[in-house]
Amino acid sequence: MKPPLFALAVTAFALSLIGCAGTSVDETVLVADHSSGAAEQAGPYTLAEPGALPTRLDIPLARSGGYLLVPAFINGESAGLMMIDTGASLSVVAQGVAGSLNLPKDGTGRTLGIGGFEDFDYRRADHFSIGQPASALNGKRNTTRGVLQLEREKMASLRMLGFGEALGVSLGGIVAFTDFGDVPFALDASNKQLTVYEPRAFRPPADASRHRLHSFRRLPMVRAELDDGNQRVEVWLIIDFGADNALTLPRAVLDRYPGVVSVNASGSGTTRGVGGSVSSTQTWVENFRVFGLNLQHIPVNFETPPPTMRGEKLIGRIGNSLLQHFRLTFHPAHGWVYSEWNPSGDAEAE
């Protein structure tokens, strides 16, 4: 029997090998406790009982190379820092962490990454939680900080050493988009914060624009448009905080609509991720509309997508180099994503 196939990190760790400077984690925000023994967890808050969550639960994050990291705990033991990756549909524990915590094997599976397929072992994780091992009011009414237990009984075990070295930090695994279930949550890269909301008390951000949230292999996806000078070109983008590049599009877009780029292809390189690596062509798109904004001169990588991403729809991804300019609030149960633009950075918006 073939192992089941999951869209685990379709684009997780899409690290460009061109101009990848060394980075270090922002240690002023948080430090994961790597000491042995059980971690003291406050609350406890659990997604198994969403109605018992506080009105909003704020979890501080760290950033390294633009990626969002959070302290994680498995069965009460520190698992180090894990990456929050909305381009992943299955959570991951690093093989080294799984071994040090003596997590038992629990079956096998297969993941699809940008480079193809990769087989893995499942590891049993009876309790998987993220956040600071302390809880305190942060000065705002109905706002709490603490540890959140996710609903995940087993995790994929993959080699993470190379990815951690590229980020300049020891990486314990991946927190996937699907780990949050149907509970509303927000990612604010500029303020390095994850916020989880009690579903009944949730209210959309007052100044945010609302956009239909689609799903591709259980991953969040939005509609976007390009302009080739003669017509609007519809593309679909996986919202991928685990991808480094601002914008990645299938090579078919460049072949069919060469007018979407502002200059001819300016370089080539290799993008490495789960399942291997793929070659890419790098340039800029002239006009790009997403989340209700008109953006100009956005860096783009054109790549050949995995076979399961090829079809009538032109499916790419929007990565953290661009997502860091947004605060995104996901409401999976209702099929909406709310976007707030942070104008800092080089991107131009209208």
Automatic annotation (TrEMBL):
Q: Record's Pfam families? A: Asp_protease_2
Entry GO MF terms: aspartic-type endopeptidase activity
The residues the entry assigns to the signal sequence are: 1-21
Q: Which UniProt key words apply to this protein?
A: Signal
> Which BP terms does GO give this entry?
proteolysis
Record carries keyword Signal: yes
Taxonomically, which superkingdom?
Bacteria
Q: Does the keyword Signal apply?
A: yes
Q: What is this protein called?
A: Aspartyl protease
Q: Which organism is it from?
A: Algisphaera agarilytica
Query: What are the top taxonomic ranks of the organism?
Result: Bacteria, Pseudomonadati, Planctomycetota, Phycisphaerae, Phycisphaerales
